[in-house]
């Protein structure tokens, strides 16, 4: 006799029943995992356990290096994950060939702009990485000094965008003193968000869009959750919309 699908909504219950989970069971909510435990998401997927949000989106939210691999077609040209000295040497040639200076690095698991650093050249990055001052992996990309930084909050049918700007810091995050103003997305920018979310299986997300001085839009990064300082949506409304999306996915799996 088959049992009913088990629905788990908290990490404590997940830990207690991890080995008894079966195909068709459902975990609602992001898993709190150490970096060394992330392979558990793969195990759950292989066993047929449904994850809400999907495991790929949870992994991508945790790793900027993974995002560079998944979303390379949507990011600034030459953006790549650097996992070792060999990757950096290869990047050096490409950046020199394209006269791409200065550059930005993003540490893999840092948020709110805390892991973003500006360098005058890839050679400078190579020097510091060789001396052990930059931990691998990290993301390397060209610096766009005259571009716009657009934050998009994408929650199902609710889409809100605002431009972030900081006249005193190249990091435009609100955490670093950035200012915000409402921004109207063009149709192609909404489509960019949809393509990125579909590729990473994000049912909702916070996306950072880089708009170059030529008017081209590229993905900066994406996360399932992020700060909403500067957004018009209130925290309680935000929470309700996320829960409604979770419930919708849950109902689909329960059919």
Question: Can you give a write-up of this model?
Answer:
The chain has helices spanning 11-17, 39-46, 55-62, 64-70, 85-97, 122-130, 187-200, 235-254; strands at 7-8, 26-28, 50-52, 80-82, 103-107, 116-119, 138-142, 148-155, 158-165, 179-182, 204-211, 217-223. Helix content is 34%, strand content 24%. The chain is α+β, with helices and mostly antiparallel strands and 255 residues long. Helix 3 (55-62) crosses helix 4 and helix 5 runs antiparallel to helix 6. It folds into three domains: 7-52, no CATH class; 77-142, Dna Ligase, domain 1 (2-Layer Sandwich), CATH 3.30.1490.20; 148-249, ATP-grasp fold, B domain (D-amino Acid Aminotransferase, Chain A, domain 1), CATH 3.30.470.20. The model has no long low-confidence stretch (mean pLDDT 92). A hairpin with a 2-residue loop joins strand 8 (148-155) and strand 9.
What class, by secondary structure content?
alpha+beta
CATH topology of the largest domain: D-amino Acid Aminotransferase, Chain A, domain 1
Number of strands: 12
Strand order of the largest sheet: 10-9-8-11-12
Instruction: Indicate the overall shape.
Output: globular
Give the terminus-to-terminus CA distance: 19 Å
Query: Judging by the overall fold, what is the CATH architecture of the largest domain?
Result: 2-Layer Sandwich
Layout: helices, strands, pairs:
Layout (H helix, E strand, L loop, with lengths): L6 E2 L2 H7 L8 E3 L10 H8 L3 E3 L2 H8 L1 H7 L9 E3 L2 H13 L5 E5 L8 E4 L2 H9 L7 E5 L5 E8 L2 E8 L13 E4 L4 H14 L3 E8 L5 E7 L11 H20 L1
Parallel strand pairs: 1-2, 2-3
Antiparallel strand pairs: 4-7, 5-6, 5-7, 8-9, 8-11, 9-10, 11-12
